[in-house]
Amino acid sequence: MARFRPTLFPRSLAGQLIALLLGAVVLGQALTTVLLIDERRSAVAAANREQILLRTASLVHLLEETPPEMHERILAAASSGNLAFTLSPEPKVTQQPQNHAERRVTQALRTMLGSNLDIRADVDIDRPILYRLSRLMDPPRPRMEQNGEQGERLSPQGEDGQHGDKERPHRPRPIVAFTAGYSLPLQSGGWLNVFAQFGPPPAWAWPTFLSGGLIALGIIGIVVVMVRRITRPLRALSVAADKLGRGDTSGELPETGPVEIRQTTRAFNAMQERLGRFVADRTRLLAAISHDLRTPLTALRLRAEFVEDDEIREKLIETIDEMHRMTEATLAFAREDVSHEPARRVDLAALVSALGDDFADMGENVTVTAPDRLDLTVRPTALRRAIRNLIENALRYGGSAHITMEVGEDIVIAIEDEGPGIPNGHMEEVFEPFVRLETSRSQETGGVGLGLATARSIAHAHGGEIRLSNRPKGGLRAAIHLPKPAA
C-alpha cells in the first residue's frame, strides 16, 4: 500500500484547479503591477520635463523684459530644490544635443520661445524598469553636485567646460527619473543655465496597492465559488459510485455541470441501470428454474415409492430429498435477494451482540466482543443472515464460535472456531455454490453448500468481502470486511 506523503500541493481536483487559477492570478497581478509602476514613472517624468520647459520659457521671457539688477532675485525665486537657474557669460553646458531626448528638449524650447536658438543640452531620462535594473550592477555616472560656497549647480563639464564635477567618494548615486542640464543664450547677452534633477515617484501608492488587493480578493472569491460549482457534480458522482459498490442503487444522478461531467454522469446512470437489470434478470431466472424443478421432483418421489426393492427405494428417496433441499435453498436465496432490502442506519454492534445472544440462549458455545456502539448504514436482515451463516458453519465444524468486532481501515466482523480449518488451496473453492469439501458429510450436518456463497454475495452487496484464514493454534477465521463510511 502506498504511503501518504504530505505535500503543500492540494490532492483534490477542486484544490488543484483553485491553486492553478490563483497562481495565474497572482502572476498576472505581479506583471500588471510592474507595468503600472513603470508607466507611472514614465508619466511623472514626462510631467516633470514639461514643467521644466514651461518654467524655462517663462523665465526667459521674464528676464528679457526686466532690468538686469532684478535678474538675481528672479532667478532665486524661480529656483527650487530640484531646479536651479543661473546666469553666466559663457554656457556651462557646452555639448550640442546628441541623443533623441536632448534633441527633443531643445526643439521643444525653440518652439516655445519662437526662435532658432543655439541651445546646449545634456539630458538623462529614466529608462524602463528592466533596463534600469540591468544598470544597477554598473558604477553610477557622476551627476551634478553643489559647487562650494555659492551653492551653484554645475553641469557634468564643470565651470571651465572640462569634467570638473565634484564627486562624493564611495557614495552610491540614486536612481533618478530625470536629470538634465542645458544652456541657452539670451537676447540681452549672457547664457541662462538650467539644471534639474527629479527622483522617481514612490514605487507603491497605498490607493493602488489597496485597490489591487481588493481586486485580487474578488477574483479569488469568484474562482473558489466557480471551481466548487464545477466540481460539485464530480463529488456527487464519487458518492454515488461508492454507494453502488455497497449495493445501494439510490436512483439516477442529475446531469449537471460542464458537458464532460454530464456525459460521465449519463454513462454512470446507464451502467447502474444495466447492472441492476442484469442482477434482477439473473435472480428471476434462478428462481424460475428452482420453482419449475419442484414438480418433476415431486413426481420422481411418488414413483420411487412404488419401487419394490427397499434398499434401492431408500437411496432413490434420499437422492430426491437432497435435490429438493437444494432446490428449496436456491429458491429461498433468489427470493431473499439482498438488493430488494432498503439500506438503513443501524447499530451494528448491537446487531452482532443480539445474534450471539440468540445462539448462546440455545446452549451454543458463542462469545461476542464488540464495542458499545457502532452505527453503519447496511441492510440489516441480509447482513444478519450472512453473519448467522458464518456462526452456524463455525458451530457445525468447530464446535464453538468466538465473534469479535474491530474498527481500523475497515469494519471487521470476525468469527473464529476451533475446528480443523480448511486447506489453503481450497479457500476460494468453498465459496462456490453447492461445494462441500467433505463428501462423506451427511446432509443433516453439512447443508447444501450455499451458506458461504450467500454470505459472500451479501458482503459484496455492501461493498465488502469475506476473508478466510487458518488460525495458528488451529481452527478457521472467517472475517467480514465492510468499508467505513466516507468522512
UniProtKB/TrEMBL annotation:
<dbReference type="InterPro" id="IPR003594">
    <property type="entry name" value="HATPase_dom"/>
</dbReference>
<dbReference type="Pfam" id="PF00512">
    <property type="entry name" value="HisKA"/>
</dbReference>
<keyword id="KW-1133">Transmembrane helix</keyword>
<keyword id="KW-0902">Two-component regulatory system</keyword>
<keyword id="KW-0812">Transmembrane</keyword>
<feature type="domain" description="HAMP">
    <location>
        <begin position="228"/>
        <end position="280"/>
    </location>
</feature>
<keyword id="KW-1003">Cell membrane</keyword>
<keyword id="KW-0418">Kinase</keyword>
<dbReference type="Pfam" id="PF02518">
    <property type="entry name" value="HATPase_c"/>
</dbReference>
<dbReference type="InterPro" id="IPR003660">
    <property type="entry name" value="HAMP_dom"/>
</dbReference>
<keyword id="KW-0597">Phosphoprotein</keyword>
<keyword id="KW-0067">ATP-binding</keyword>
<keyword id="KW-0997">Cell inner membrane</keyword>
<dbReference type="InterPro" id="IPR050980">
    <property type="entry name" value="2C_sensor_his_kinase"/>
</dbReference>
<dbReference type="GO" id="GO:0005524">
    <property type="term" value="F:ATP binding"/>
</dbReference>
<dbReference type="Pfam" id="PF00672">
    <property type="entry name" value="HAMP"/>
</dbReference>
<dbReference type="InterPro" id="IPR036890">
    <property type="entry name" value="HATPase_C_sf"/>
</dbReference>
<keyword id="KW-0472">Membrane</keyword>
<dbReference type="GO" id="GO:0005886">
    <property type="term" value="C:plasma membrane"/>
</dbReference>
<keyword id="KW-0808">Transferase</keyword>
<dbReference type="InterPro" id="IPR036097">
    <property type="entry name" value="HisK_dim/P_sf"/>
</dbReference>
<feature type="region of interest" description="Disordered">
    <location>
        <begin position="136"/>
        <end position="172"/>
    </location>
</feature>
<dbReference type="InterPro" id="IPR004358">
    <property type="entry name" value="Sig_transdc_His_kin-like_C"/>
</dbReference>
<dbReference type="InterPro" id="IPR005467">
    <property type="entry name" value="His_kinase_dom"/>
</dbReference>
<keyword id="KW-0547">Nucleotide-binding</keyword>
<feature type="transmembrane region" description="Helical">
    <location>
        <begin position="204"/>
        <end position="227"/>
    </location>
</feature>
<feature type="compositionally biased region" description="Basic and acidic residues">
    <location>
        <begin position="138"/>
        <end position="152"/>
    </location>
</feature>
<dbReference type="GO" id="GO:0000155">
    <property type="term" value="F:phosphorelay sensor kinase activity"/>
</dbReference>
<dbReference type="InterPro" id="IPR003661">
    <property type="entry name" value="HisK_dim/P_dom"/>
</dbReference>
<feature type="domain" description="Histidine kinase">
    <location>
        <begin position="288"/>
        <end position="486"/>
    </location>
</feature>
<protein>
    <recommendedName>
        <fullName>histidine kinase</fullName>
        <ecNumber>2.7.13.3</ecNumber>
    </recommendedName>
</protein>
